[in-house]
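Q: What would this chain look like folded?
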Amino acid sequence: MKSTLLKGLSVIMLLGLILSACGGGAPAAEETSAPTEAAGTATEAPAEVSGGVLSIGVPIEPETLDPGDAIYVQEQFILMNLFDSLLAMGPDGELYPALATEWTPNEDYSEFTFKLREDVTFHDGTPFNAEAVKISFDHINSDAVLESGGKSLLTDHSYVETVVVDDFTVTVKFGASYPTFLRDAARQWLSISSPAALEQFGAEYGRNPVGTGPFKFVSWTPQSEIVIERNPDYNWAPGFAAHEGPAYLDQVVFRILPEAATRVTAFESGEILMAGEPPALDAIALGDAGTASVQNFAMPGIPAILMINSTKAPTDDINVRKAIIHAVNQEELAQTAFQSLGLPTYGTVSPTTWGFSEESSNLYRYDPEEAARLLEEAGWVDSNGDGIREKDGANLTLDWPDNPAWSEAFNELVLGYLTNAGFEVTYRSMDDGAAYEEILAGNYTFVYMYWVRADPSPLRYLFHSDNVNGNGAYTNFVSEDLDAALEAADVQTDEEARRQDYVTVQNIIMENALVLPMFNVNSTYLTAPSVQGFTFDVEGYPWLYDISISE
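A: My prediction, written as structure tokens:
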């Protein structure tokens, strides 16, 4: 069963500290056309270094390579190389043409008309056209896709239909205003698949993906590797790319290496040339030794948080929730877990993200005395001196079902802080599927979450009451004021009004102590000296198209 737990590490990965790539552009409504000059391009690699195989160690295996069915970070990193979307978002935060050359919204941003490129073919030879866009969007919205990032984007905004105006013009229609659709149309989740491949492979399409991107799918060996190769016909890179034509690399091999130590060892031996999510101490040491470059990027969106179940005792008491936040030293946590790469956070939106609320992020700081006062006020005391607080004969117990693959860098630190405050924390290690079943059953206090996004819009999925009881809003908190602000932000076309809606949302969440903020999520990679032209995209995924390997 697909898990929605970790959208974002998808979500995901405890993936510098300055978001140079996100730019200052707010995600309000965008008009037609695109910038004429690229910004923030990668260092151009000379043509003579074209070729070679780039091997990358990644910690998590994707569940699917169907972009319409995808949800996780480990999927998006690969998908962005196999597929193109209608638009592309540059490292400056601006929109650029991709499969669409022009775009025009209607007055209330509920309909969007795209003029399409006429020179594109899919990897299987199928021509790209307006019908392909319609089929892809309809596939994402179909019953064949139970849940995904793309389906959430469409259904949450009342997707109506995609109309083929002519062979190279489409209009995408929604039943409500969708002011951020143009930015979402640049995401991998809404990229375009080959209609022929969708029909040919059916339910197996996720293991046989066919797009228009700079690389083509070759093979997938479960629990081992995924191989992609250069698309020799690719000649439609976005304007911010450092070169034109096909990618430099002949082939990319994504090695699935779950253990961080194994990835570092493989990197040191030369078995892989890039290692994702290395332990901070190893990354810093290799960087200082000159044997690796440490690529680090502060990802925008929802930072690393623990969502707190507000309907299950003892965290149905706001004082207990507030005590949890005061009990954790975020600055020490970030520095201990990630050394100089760590950046603490104190709210529900990363400080590198448009719409960030300074006010809500100043409500709590590490204060063990205040945590103790709140717990005692709530009736929780350590009456027998065993270090665990009790009330009415029951211990102050918290339950955290979790896949340690996501949290191994910090979970013991969090447990230590809470134990010191008098909590008895049960950390239950399990895979994603088992953790999801526990969450559906309501058997949890905490859900670890982060979500990579250039704006705060994931807050609606994570906190609207429509999604309580296992559907994404894992705090199970219900508030008319919170719902109203989330709904207003979702359809607001005025930039400043939308920003204020998100400030209201963040304030309500933190005033009610619904999450334990921990740290900003960074995208971190080790790259060998031979890897040239490395850069991140706007959300922190490595941009492989411009990478080359030197002799």
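The longest strand covers residues 159-166.
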